[in-house]
Design goal:
Elements lengths: L4 H17 L1 H11 L4 H26 L11 H15 L4 H14 L8 H19 L9 H15 L4 H17 L24 H15 L7
Length: 225
């Protein structure tokens, strides 16, 4: 198993599939406590990223630049392209938040491959970007409530297992963290306007975070692109 740029690309493509498949669910979650556009925004954003990945692949294939003398592709290259595309195409809060997450992650993954320590650094940097941009803390019913346990779980797993273990632990923790937002009262973002009425609803950003990290695990089992 190698976590390289091909894996990163598969991860983003699987994320695009996942948010498309769950668009109605994400939209309904956001309609209950937000603007109702989270699903549509993410589908549009990740489709745009996939289109750019396709265009880049076609350009490389057509120019022969993928030969043995081509510069190595870095994990961070894929994450940076994802970041800039999401920032320019996704409206609402999710574009800047996810864009900043991927941009911060790209800065610590400028390597041909990443190991368990690289996974932890990538997830920590993504979380740092989200908290810096959104000024949210755990317990405020935001995507931070999925990202924080994901980072903590990856750190624990990285000391005991391999890259797959770290990613699986992060994805499972994000899923549990997302579910745990249901009884919380939102104190950040648009959902906070509802006060106590926000309790009983799952945070859409936390759910999309869980989908994104599950896609990173799914990408491990796919054939190289």
């Amino acid at each position: 198993m190698t976590l390289d740029a091909d894996w990163a690309e598969r991860w983003i493509r699987r994320t695009a599939d996942a948010v498309a498949d769950r668009r109605d669910e994400l939209t309904e979650l956001d309609r209950e406590i937000g603007d109702g556009d989270h699903g549509e925004n993410l589908v549009r954003g990740f489709r745009a990223v996939v289109a750019k990945l396709d265009a880049r692949r076609a350009e490389v294939d057509g120019s022969g630049a993928g030969g043995p003398e081509a510069p190595p592709r870095l994990v961070g290259d894929v994450l940076k392209l994802t970041a800039t595309t999401l920032m320019s195409t996704v409206g609402g809060a999710s574009g800047p938040l996810y864009g900043t997450a991927f941009l911060r992650a790209a800065k610590v993954t400028g390597h041909e491959t990443i190991d368990t320590r690289g996974i932890v650094a990538m997830l920590e940097s993504a979380l740092d970007g989200i908290t810096a941009r959104g000024k949210a803390e755990p317990g405020e019913k935001t995507m931070v409530d999925a990202w924080t346990p994901a980072v903590e779980a990856a750190e624990r797993a990285a000391g005991e297992g391999d890259e797959a273990d770290a990613l699986r632990a992060a994805a499972a923790a994000a899923d549990a963290g997302s579910t745990a937002t249901i009884p919380l009262v939102a104190t950040k973002g648009r959902a906070s306007y509802l006060g106590e009425r926000s309790a009983g609803h799952e945070d859409p950003g936390a759910r999309s975070t869980a989908l994104l990290l599950a896609a990173a695990v799914d990408a491990l089992g796919e054939e190289p692109a």
